[in-house]
């Protein structure tokens, strides 16, 4: 496979609203990001995936865009954006824009026009259908609860919205829509961005009348067309958000020969702690099975071969914090946060850090729905309450899976509001910011931050981590996740005990060199070792 910069890179995701406020309005901004570029350079990352910063009425925190070529006033100006790109460049940090083109905001000029009349030039930019027997056109559902069809009084038709009713779906079958999107992408490419993260890109080939949403028949044709019209001949990084992807589907997107995307986010591991079956979704909780986690991640490690590339992540702005979710955010907070870093960053693929993950930020439990800000959470709560779920059960699900968990303000130091803002933060700051913060992490050489920093540095030093073969060790306790990476005659062994109990592990080969660990080890592990609670290490065995 031709080597590209992004194969060896680590990407840091910023959710701008919660990163750093500089003007006291309680909302993070672009100047706040610029202020912390030195921190990110110190961590060693190569690129920032910037969640949307475009003009937006914020029905879904910027994922509802009303102007793709303007910056949200709360976040700053186009000048700030240009400075972010150039200041990033000085530090070897590229900016990856969030491309949200499955839908726009209902305040986008195209939709404002489209809804005026059936004859409007922009009408066909969106998906309009007549009522069927006085009701919605069909059974399509919104990810944010309820029907995906909204009735529009003015013209007496329904429009499609796979997310909130303020996020009307674009009609990708319309050639003009596609050309407008490509022109907009070129606007950002000309500004010097490093690539695009493509929001729910698996939905753009939808066939609403057949109730096909993901993986529609024209999806890959559109992506190939986009590639040719925009980034194809530039050295950019692209990553598609594709919820239902299997390894076979991942190859369609990311096989370099097909000229589509660099890589995708697959979510198979993310769904392992939800109940399976008809009508069940992420709110229906079940405990994680570690053997399943091993099986799923290992499958993805080997399945793509030379025909695709993996993204590696535990967290993003839609997911709960990994240390709270599958680790232990009290007794073994530091150990389990480091374990998840070591386990993932030794795998093959491009790792993504979500802001705050590098200091072990945790979920923030709410006790009442009035504390929630996220539209998905609020809509689900209303819907399920009406269906007869108890408040207690719903709050439990929200505390486990709600999107606000990962969106609380970045914890910089132990001052009021964690140094995020001098004003009223838009979303509650976790009180554990007194202990869990960047300042403490930077002062302590054993902190989670320095584990991340070291893992990132190791990736730069060792081609084995980027290119080596992967093999799961199968003869282990259920709770022990161990694998080997091999490259050019060298082999490393990664061992991680994802539990609060000690477990023995028989090392197939003697350790020659200790690469990294989350407990302090005086000797290189040999023979049969006892892995302590959440212990993880990497050793060279040949
Ligand atoms: O997420 C896609 C998506 O389907 C999520 O809403 C996901 O299903 C959910 O959060 C987990 O249950 C992307 C963005 O990442 C998300 O923030 C947006 O809300 C959504 O698209 C719409 O743009
Ligand atoms: Ca601000």
Question: How would you describe this protein?
Answer:
- Helix 10 runs parallel beside helix 14 (about 450-460).
- The protein has 15 helices and 20 strands.
- About 50% of the residues are buried.
- The protein has helices spanning about 30-35, 35-45, 80-90, 110-115, 175-190, 220-230, 245-255, 290-305, 320-325, 335-345, 375-385, 390-400, 440-445, 450-460, 465; strands at about 10-15, 45-50, 55, 65-70, 95-100, 130, 150, 155-160, 195-200, 235-240, 265, 310, 350-355, 470, 480-485, 490-495, 505, 515, 530, 535-540.
- The longest helix has 16 residues, at about 175-190.
- The model has no long low-confidence stretch (mean pLDDT about 100).
- About 25% of the residues lie in helices and about 15% in strands.
- The strands form five sheets. An eight-stranded parallel beta sheet has the order 11-10-9-5-2-1-13-12, with helices on one face.
- The protein is globular.
- The protein binds 1-O-alpha-D-glucopyranosyl-D-fructose (TEU) and calcium ion.
- Calcium ion (CA) binds near residues 21 and 27.
- It holds the Pfam family Alpha-amylase.
- Belongs to the glycosyl hydrolase 13 family.
- GO terms for molecular function: alpha-amylase activity.
